Amino acid sequence: MATKLRLFLDASVIIAGIASLTGASGIILSLCEAGQVQAVVSEAILDECQRNIQRKLPEMMPRFQRVMKALKLEVVPYPPLEQVRRCEEIIHRKDAHILAAAIEAGPDYLVTLDAAHFLKDPSVSQKSGLRIVSPGDFLDEVIRVGSTGEGEYST
């Protein structure tokens, strides 16, 4: 039996998925909602999503609330302060809590749209031990792996 992949979703992915159901982020949210993959988030990421949607996309708040209920999220607590401080040595301070929570959660992937701090710096992945990908790269990999029959997951 195939193992359900656990995806730690950054706020950028959730907000983009709420704003556009047809983009890669929206497709990932749909996969989570269908139970094909497990969405993992931290309490801080949920707070950030709600705050940013209320401020920048208030018309999307009802959709955000509906989707969050439908996703059957695995919510991890705020990471320990010591872990956040260690992560500040790896990544920009504002993103240290995200990296720390992802490390604590131990997902199969950390999915983010933050190119500047996560995606374009391979040392973040190397030092954290996390597979860090964009939504599009995750979908490309799942489709590739699923079509070859390799790995544990197929679509």
Short description:
The protein is of the alpha/beta class. It is built from nine helices and five strands, in the order E-H-H-E-H-H-E-H-H-E-H-H-E-H.
| Overall number of structural domains | 1
CATH topology: Rossmann fold
Judging by the overall fold, what is the CATH architecture?
A: 3-Layer(aba) Sandwich
| Low-confidence regions | 150-155
Mean pLDDT comes to 91
Q: Which percent range fits the helix content?
A: 55-70%
Provide the structure class: alpha/beta
Query: Largest sheet, order of strands side by side?
Result: 3-2-1-4-5
Order of helices and strands: EHHEHHEHHEHHEH
Can you walk me through this structure?
The protein is globular, with a radius of gyration of 15 Å. The chain has a 5-stranded parallel beta sheet, sandwiched between helices. The chain has one domain (6-148): Rossmann fold, CATH 3.40.50. Helix content is 55%, strand content 11%. It is built from 9 helices and 5 strands, in the order E-H-H-E-H-H-E-H-H-E-H-H-E-H. It is α/β, with parallel strands linked by helices. Helix 1 (11-19) crosses helix 3 (43-56) and helix 5 crosses helix 6.
List keywords for this structure.
globular, single chain, disordered C terminus, 155 residues, 11% strand, five-stranded parallel beta sheet, Rossmann fold, alpha/beta
